[in-house]
Amino acid sequence: MASSYPPAAGDPANAAARAFSAIDYAALVLMIVGGLNWGLVGAFNFDLVAAIFGVMTIPSRIVYALVGVAAIYGISLLLRRARDRPGAAHGAAIAHLKKGSAS
Questions:
Q1: pLDDT tens digits along 60-100
Q2: d(CA 41, CA 48)
Q3: 32 Cβ neighbours under 8 A, 6+ residues apart
Q4: pTM of the full predicted structure?
């Protein structure tokens, strides 16, 4: 049965699937900023972006828009990584089919 753990750090076979680009990191940072901001809004009714840039000013709207674009990009990043990871999404189903055909 295929392991659900990521390959070892020295495994060159999956190095490309594990590597993040600069855009991937930027999107992740923006999603973290957005998530933390929403956490502050939910927990303390405090909007950090608005506190730094002003309520609905052009800079704050740019930050909000960038976080939204990063979240959309994050969906594609998640789907690409799931597709590129061998055995992650369908390994268990294939193992089940092989087990059924052997008996």
A1: 999 999 999 999 999 999 998 888 776 655 555 555 566 66
A2: 8
A3: none
A4: 0.65
Element (H, E) at 2: none
Instruction: Report the sign of the C-alpha dihedral through residues 44, 72, 86, 98, in that order.
Output: positive
* Residue with more model confidence, 26 or 17: 26
Mean pLDDT of 29-58: 97
- DSSP per-residue codes, 8-70: PTT-GGGHHHHPPPHHHHHHHHHHHHHHHHHHHHHHHS--HHHHHH-TT-HHHHHHHHHHHHH
Q: One-letter amino acid identity for 77?
A: L
Are the beta carbons of 88 and 6 closer than 8 angstroms? Answer: no
Instruction: State the amino acid at position 60 in one-letter form.
Output: S
